Structures are given as C-alpha cells and as structure tokens.
Amino acid sequence: SSVTVSGSTEGSDTLSGIEKIQFADKVIDASTLEEFSDTTTPTTPTIPKPTTKSEVVTTPKESDGINYFLLQLSKPLSTDVTISYTTKDGTAQAGTVETGGDYVKTSGTATINKGELTVVIEVTLLDDSVTESDETFELVLSNPVGISFPEGKSEISVTRTIIDDDSSASSSANMIDLIGVAYTDNSYG
User: Fold this and answer.
1) What whole-number distance in Å separates Cα of residue 160 and Cα of residue 179?
2) How far apart are CA 23 and CA 116, in angstroms?
3) Could you give the CA distance from residue 54 to residue 72 in angstroms, rounded to a whole number?
4) What is the rounded CA–CA span in Å between residue 135 and residue 66?
5) Residue environment code for 29-62, b if the CB has 16+ CB neighbours within 10 A, otherwise e
6) What would the pLDDT profile of 97-123 be if each residue is shown by its tens digit?
7) pLDDT (0 to 100) of residue 171
8) Could you give the CA distance from residue 107 to residue 83 in angstroms, rounded to a whole number?
C-alpha cells in the first residue's frame, strides 16, 4: 500500500510498501486505513516508565516490548543538560522482527531541563517466537553539555541483557548498571 503525507509548506511525499502505521494508542492497516487487529502487532509495554533508579529494569524480557534508561543528576541545575545517545549492537542486533532484529536502533539527544533531575530514554524491544540465548546491547552516551562525565570520560555506555522468554531455559545475567551514577555535576558546585 502507499500512503501520501502532505505538509502545509513542504508539498507531499508518497511512501510505498507500508503495511502498518503505529500510533501511541493504535495501529492502522495502511491498505484499509482501519485499525489493525493482527495478533503479531507489538503489545503495550509491560513495564512502567521509571521515575527512580530502583524502578529501572536492567534485564528486560523481549516480551516487555520496551526498555527504559533513566538518566539522573544528583541535584537540579540552573541550566539545561543535553546528552547524545545511540544504541550499539552486542550479541543483540538492531533491526525489525522481519529481519530477525532484537531491538529497534535508537539515537538522539536527551535533555534534562533546568531544575529537573531525570530524563528517560526508551528503546523498543522486538519479541519473536525464536528460542535463543539471552542477548546484550548497549546505550552509548556522549557529547554532554552542561555537565561532565565521571573521570573526564568523553563517552560512557550502559549494557542491557534482553532475556529470551520463549523457553524456560532463560537465565538472568549479572549487570553493571551505570544509571544514576553516569553523570556528575561536581564542576557545577
């Protein structure tokens, strides 16, 4: 199916080969523009968005649908803080369900607004029915503005293990979780 996207000043673009359009609350079948009811549609995330370090799930199950990374300052600052982030393959591979991917590649810039303590980065996990080993990926943080990383580092990363829940043989791995200690604002008093 094709979908034409029109903008008020930029004209329009036609996207071909579109099967589904996913919104926050529903998925639309692009060929009929009706709500999609296929059972393979990604499910609503099963874990809540964290607001504190203790709520962060560091070993998510692939069926969780999403994993959250919480970036937290030790105290509010009087200026905005920005940090670039990108996911990086480990044994888990970025992609789509169709290509055998384990998660969706994610990148951008996270902003902790002045006076606030946290921002949450979301990474979509892809659930399949393939029995496989637990797999890892990283969130790489770089280019801090308004703060500095510990020990003068220019880049830090956090590893997550995606637990395969397609068999009862899954096991949890011990993880080093840098969230909550990833940033220091020591140079800002």
Assistant:
1) 11
2) 28
3) 12
4) 15
5) bbeeeeebeeeeebeebeeeebeeeeebbbbbbb
6) 888 899 999 999 999 999 999 999 999
7) 38
8) 11
pLDDT digits (tens, 9 = 90+) for 4-14: 555 556 666 66
Take residue 52 and report the two structure tokens written for it.
């504190």
155 three-class SS: strand
For the stretch 16-73, pLDDT in tens is 666 667 766 666 766 667 665 544 444 456 688 999 999 999 999 988 989 999 999 9
SS (H, E, C) 44-104: CCCCCCCCCHHHCCCCCEHHHCEEEEEEECCCCCCCCEEEEEEEEECCCCECCCCCCCCEC
In angstroms, the CA 137 to CA 159 distance is 6
CB 142 within 8 A of CB 83: yes
Residue with the two structure tokens 């926050």: 24
Phi, psi (rounded to 5 degrees) for 177? -110, 115
**Is pLDDT at 85 greater than 90 in this prediction?**
yes
Q: Global pTM?
A: 0.66
Q: Which helix (H) or strand (E) holds 5?
A: strand 2-7
Q: Answer for the pair 151, 182: CB distance below 8 angstroms, yes or no.
A: no
Whose CA is closest to 69, among 50, 92, 43, 94?
50
